[in-house]
Amino acid sequence: MKTLSRTILTLFVLSFSCLAAIAGEVSFKITKQYLNFPISHKENRGRMTFEVNGKPSLSVVIRLAPDEAEYWVFKDMSAFKGKTIKITYDGNEKGLSKIYQSDEIEGQAELYKEKNRPQFHFTTRRGWINDPNGLIYQEGEYHLFYQHNPFERDWENMHWGHAVSNDLIHWTELPDALYPDHLGTMFSGSAVIDYDNTAGFNKGKTPAMVAAFTAASSDRQVQGIAYSLDKGRTFTKYDKNPVINSKEKWNSQDTRDPKVFWYAPSKHWVLVLNERDGHSIYTSSNLKDWKYESHVTGFWECPE
User: Could you say which of 76, 90, 131, 176 is catalytic?
Assistant: First the structure.
C-alpha cells in the first residue's frame, strides 16, 4: 500500500509540473520565464539538446548535477511560452529530474551580492563571459554583446550575450542574442545599423541592426550575418549563411572575428577579417555578397 501511494504521488507531482521524464529525456510545457539547471563540476560534460514542438532548437554541453548542485544556471524561455520543450541528455540522466521552471532564476535574491562580484564592471548573472562584440548605439541605447557560455562558469557553448545601457555605466542584461547552430558556436564579430537598407532587411522606416559573426565548428570557422528589427531584442539569421567560407583559400581554420563598417566615399561596406597569418579585406554593397580585396600579413602595431 505504501509503495502504491508513493507511485500515485510521484505521478501527480510530475503531471502537475507539466514534466515527464523518460530515460534521458524530459519535456516541459513552458508556463514560466526560466528553466533552472543544477551544475556540478564533479560531473563530466554531457550533450544536451533542445527541441521546440518537435523541431531541433539548440545543442550544448553541460555538467548537469545528479545530486547536490555547486551552482545553478538558467535559460530564458520567454520566447517559448505555451510551447512544449523536449530536452535530451547523454550524461547522468538523474539530473534531469532537478531541472525546473520558474519566474525567477535560482538564487535571484543573492545576485550581485556575492563575494568578489564586481560592482562597476559589467558581469552577467550566470556563466562565463569574455570578448565584447558588436558594440553599437541606436536610438538612445548603447548595446553590449559579448561571448557567453550561459551553462557553465568555464569557456564553452559560445553564445552572444546582450546588455543595454543609456549611460555606459548602468547595464540591463537581456536574453542571449545569438545561439549555436548547425554551422557552429557563436564567436566574435561586430554590428552595424543598415540605415539605407542595403541588405533588404529593413521594415518600413525601421532600420535593421545587422550582426556579423563567426560560426566555429571543429572543421572550420565561417562568417554569418543576422538582423534585428526590435533594437537587438531578437535576431533572425540570414538563411543563406555563411556569407564568407574561406578555409580552403587559406588552408587554415583561423578565419574569424569580422569587423564591418560603411565606407562612404565608395558607398560600400568593408569587412576586416582575421585570417591565418594576418587580416583580409572584403567589400560588399549589401552585407550578403562579399568580394575579397587584399590581405595584410602580420598584426598591426601602434607606433611608439
Answer: 131
